[in-house]
Design a protein that fits this description.
Layout: H1 4-9, E1 12-13, E2 19-21, E3 26-31, E4 35-40, E5 45-50, H2 56-67, E6 77-80, E7 84-88, E8 93-94, H3 95-101, H4 107-122, E9 135-137, E10 143-145, H5 159-171, H6 182-193
Antiparallel strand pairs: 1-2, 3-4, 4-5, 5-7, 6-7, 8-9, 9-10
Keywords: Kinase, Transferase
GO molecular function: kinase activity
InterPro entries: Kinase-like_dom_sf (IPR011009)
Length: about 200
């Protein structure tokens, strides 16, 4: 049995939340705005460790995942502490990676995301902050969603609506390239967040 607190304690960061060192049984698989995510090697588990200034999010996210535990669209969680969550490791590609690798995202995939979000809404949540990096397509083509900390916010989030609109009006057209460079996608995301695309405003 893993000693998860010991693994968390092995993670050293500097004052700017730059990762310095960690236990060799951990493999870094993601860095977000508020946390590192590691795969626990030789297992099907991941551990999300929040930056010191964002440890308060742990409790909020655990509470939301607990609401979603019966859903097939979200990872199960197995243990948590003051600054970490142990959950399923999700094999596959984020929608962002699908775009950079040329893996096609179909309307069926979008419908499955809609089903997942409806599940969350029917559970009393308000799915928010839905973007290309927190939607996964697994090897068999099914959908998983992560990063649910904002699912209790009260304001309306238009990101998923706008992504679906862009898929229908642009991406799905035969002439549109299905493989795109990271720089292009990151630049597009920056412009979108600034509200500089008239018909796609945050």
């Amino acid at each position: 049995m893993n000693n998860y607190p010991a693994l968390v304690d092995s993670i050293c960061v500097d004052k700017k939340n730059r990762l310095l060192s960690y236990d060799p049984s951990l493999k870094l698989i993601g860095i977000g705005r508020s946390a590192f995510v590691f795969r626990i090697e030789t297992s099907d588990l991941a551990i999300k460790v929040f930056f010191p200034d964002f440890e308060y999010i742990t409790e909020e996210e655990v509470a939301i995942y607990n609401v979603l535990q019966d859903s097939p669209y979200f990872p199960s969680i197995y243990e948590n502490g003051p600054n970490y969550i142990v959950m399923d490791y999700i094999e596959g590609d984020t929608f962002f990676r699908c775009l950079t690798n040329g893996r096609r995202i179909t309307s069926d995939h979008l419908e499955e995301v809609d089903t997942a979000l409806s599940w969350a809404s029917d559970s009393g949540l308000n799915p928010s902050d839905i973007h290309l990096r927190n939607i996964f397509m697994t090897p068999d083509g099914s959908i998983k969603l992560i990063d649910v900390a904002r699912y209790k916010q009260t304001k309306t989030c238009r990101q998923w609506r706008d992504l679906k609109k862009a898929h229908a009006e642009i991406y799905s057209k035969p002439f549109f390239a299905k493989k795109m460079p990271k720089l292009f996608l990151n630049t597009l995301a920056f412009i979108y967040k600034k509200g500089w695309i008239p018909t796609y405003r945050v």
